[in-house]
Specification:
By secondary structure, this protein is α/β, with parallel strands linked by helices. Helices cover 43% and strands 13% of the residues. It is elongated and about 55 Å long. The relative contact order is 0.18.
Length: 218
């Protein structure tokens, strides 16, 4: 059974936290401010760059009225280093190849802006998707279900699954009415069993078989 499978990006397909942390570090250095550790920055990931910028500002005492300026600065610094430290999670390229080889159609739905999302997919040799919906592709961002609906619409008809790693992804899938597969090695902040999901997995080598089994149940 051929399906439409949509993936989150950061924390799901790629371990991008080191680059995001470096972009934040460079922005804060430019402002003459103390650095935040990577664990703190990781805790800010998931709701898009403007939201991340707001959390960085709150953590470092930058006034709220500078949000637009700081967001633009963070984007500039991140774009300058995007891909330097990012790597696909182990087994991701092989899993994507297996899913495409089985006839499934694939898309990305991320809160990362679309241009850097496409850039990092190309740099990581993961530019095998039929559609990429970024955080600025539509007026809405996850957990609003509209981006996930748009990604699925771009893939046509058929059973749908969403693969992600976070609370935002779980809420997006639930609001969209799409079965959710939870990757447990990403940037989730709460226990996996507290999030609604069809199945969990920690190793991408297991994902193609897991998807086939779950599609048989849908």
């Amino acid at each position: 059974m051929n399906a439409r499978i949509v993936f989150d990006l950061d924390g799901t397909l790629i371990h991008s936290a080191p680059d995001i942390h470096l972009g934040v570090a460079n922005m804060l250095a430019e402002q003459g401010l103390a650095q935040l550790d990577q664990a703190t920055v990781v805790s800010f990931i998931g709701n898009g760059l403007p939201h991340l910028a707001g959390l960085v500002m709150a953590a470092t005492g930058i006034p709220e009225n500078r949000h637009e300026e700081i967001t633009a600065s963070l984007m500039r610094h991140y774009d300058a280093i995007n891909g330097q430290l990012t790597r696909p999670f182990t087994g991701v390229p092989e899993a994507l190849d297996a899913l495409r080889g089985a006839g499934h159609r694939l898309a990305v739905c991320t809160n990362k802006p679309e241009a850097p999302a496409r850039d990092i997919l190309r740099m990581m040799a993961l530019d095998c998707f039929d559609a990429v919906i970024g955080g600025n592709t539509l007026p809405q961002r996850k957990p609003d279900p509209a981006p996930l609906h748009a990604a699925l619409a771009a893939l046509g008809d058929g059973p749908a699954l969403y693969v992600g790693d976070s609370e935002v992804d779980a809420e997006t899938a639930e609001r969209a009415g799409v079965p959710f597969l939870l990757f447990t090695e990403g940037y989730r902040k709460t226990p996996a069993d507290s999030l609604p999901h069809l199945a969990v997995f920690s190793d991408f080598a297991a994902l193609p078989g897991l998807i086939e089994a779950r599609l048989a149940e849908i």
